[in-house]
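Residues determine shape. We examine one folded chain.
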Amino acid sequence: MRVNEINSNELNKFPYSLSIWEDQNDLVDSIVNILEGILRIRISESAAKPIGLATGRTMEPIYLSLVERLKSWEDLELNALRKSWHSFNLDEYVGLSRNDANSFNNQMLHFLGKPLSLDPKVIRVPNGMAEDPWVEACEYSNAINKLGGCSIQLLGLGINGHIGFNEPPCYADSICRVVKLSKSTREQNAFLFRGNNRDVPQEAITLGISEILKAEKIYLIVTGSSKHKALNELLYLPSSKYLPASWLRLHKQVNILADRKAIEGN
């Protein structure tokens, strides 16, 4: 059940919509409805821009539900979806191979690629095993820019306010690059590494804020009380290098979907 929907005029003219959901399952249904609609339109477009995807625990139920929804399509539509699919992920760990169980590439194949029978080549993820990760970051950015950026960008919110792996301090003009992951981020992602944050890679390749802001529309998904502080600062404080997500204020089409726990902090 949606508790409330707030427009930008009620939030200091921050240019986005905020939907608050009582139940996380209803929030998932809402974003899946949006994604399904976008994907249905894409299959009829001759030169559709790619879609920007994210990984992490927030995204897993979304992808599971999206796959279930898409599998209900008629065969003709589903085949058209497979032919038109083109996505770019936000980030990848440096030092993990594409087949590593904990790599984001492997997660995308697990949650979307294999269930939908998508060609792995159209699910783009940075190469964490590139000989020179900085060159890989540059080439990855160029590939997106040549296509005019993403039509939509799906985002989660880190406890410390990071989006992608843009850790604080971070500036609005940051580009795709190699970053050192903070302690809090490694602890947050330790669930993929048997709960041991020491096994989480220390570096990652991530799209910068500048590439994220080039998306036509942005959907930020925020769930759980642990995200309350970062979300509250995003909603009510000015943009700052110390809260990377705050640079989303520069974008005119940011849509935030949050559950009550993230809003209230309990």
About this structure: The longest helix spans residues 24-42.
